[in-house]
Amino acid sequence: MTYHIQSSKRGLLEPIKKHIINFEGERISVPCYHFKHTILSILHNRELMQKENIIENFDIFSGHTKHITQGPQMCGDINTGDVYHLARRRYCTGHKDFPLLPLVFYVKTKSDLHVSLATLPFTVTIGIFNQHLVPNFSHKKGKSTMQTAKQKLQDEHKFLKLILEELAESFCNQGGIGTMVMKREVILQPWIHFVIGDASGSNEFCGHFIHHGNCAMPYRDCKCSYKEMGKAHAYCEYVKLEELEAAFEAMADKHGRVKEMSKHKIDKAFDI
User: Fold this and answer.
1) Whether residue 241 is found in the same domain as residue 191
2) How far apart are CA 151 and CA 255, in angstroms?
């Protein structure tokens, strides 16, 4: 089933161009959609906002699940997970707070045979649709480019920050956005619940080394070595944010890398 974005102000739903200056001094543009107006256009769509289109037994206004049907042949939705309820209690503290729960998809796509038209669509959904395209930074640079892996990664995070800044400005910095949903007054409260992507895109999102086992910690979330990851019963020790911050302060080399944890020290997109 396909739903069309509706708005009396069509111009608000058209993409705008934002720009950054990359490491090599080039001015690069990226098309960005208005996060706020795209969300509102979907929530105000009467055809979409019908009871039959909402998760079963889920109260969209409070974020509570009325009844969870369990069984060996059934898989629960996001709203049945423990992490979801922890997040809801953290971000929705008022009686009018409406949990938006954006989910991010970040996977590289290639639209030609020469890979020069490769892009990284930043797609957000919750029953809403919003897409941004991150350009291919390596096009026409070839393998002999002097740009380091860290510099390429930093350029990518500059673009991601452009995309996420509007989310922060429109919602987080204003305490949410007040609107009407299905004839009820609410305050929209979003948080990025998780990011879905391939291995390469997820590594870039986390500032992790892009290697195939040739590094201390091949996987971005745990401390397992390449050899340990091949074990049938691996006992992983997860990397904590506090450990990363301490490592960047104490162990980063002149290239801004922490080889022991396979991470680049960069200005990340989430540092808004």
Assistant:
1) no
2) 10
How far, in Å, are 11, 48, 101 from residue 84 at the CA level?
34, 23, 9
Give me the number of domains the chain comprises. 2
pTM of the model: 0.70
The domain boundary, picked from 186, 206, 226, lies at 206
Rounded to the nearest 10 degrees, what angle do helices 35-43 and 149-170 cross at?
Answer: 50
Torsion of CA 52, 170, 156, 206, to 10 degrees: -70
Burial track 94-114 (b if 16+ CB lie within 10 A, e otherwise): eeebbbbbbebebebeeeeee
| 3-class secondary structure per residue, 207-222 | CECCCCCCCCCCCCCE
Same structural domain for residues 129 and 230? no
Residue 172 phi/psi, 5-degree rounding, is -65, -45
Distance of alpha carbon 100 from the chain centroid: 14
For the segment 177-191, what is each residue's pLDDT rounded down to a tens digit? 889 998 899 999 888
Structure tokens at 74: 């059934």
Q: What confidence tens digit (pLDDT) does each residue in 53-88 have?
A: 787 778 888 888 776 666 556 666 777 778 888 988
Residues 89 and 115 in one domain: yes
C-alpha span between 62 and 96 (Å, rounded): 8
Helix, strand or coil, per DSSP, at residue 127? coil
Burial class (CB in 10 A: 0-12, 13-18, 19+), 233: exposed
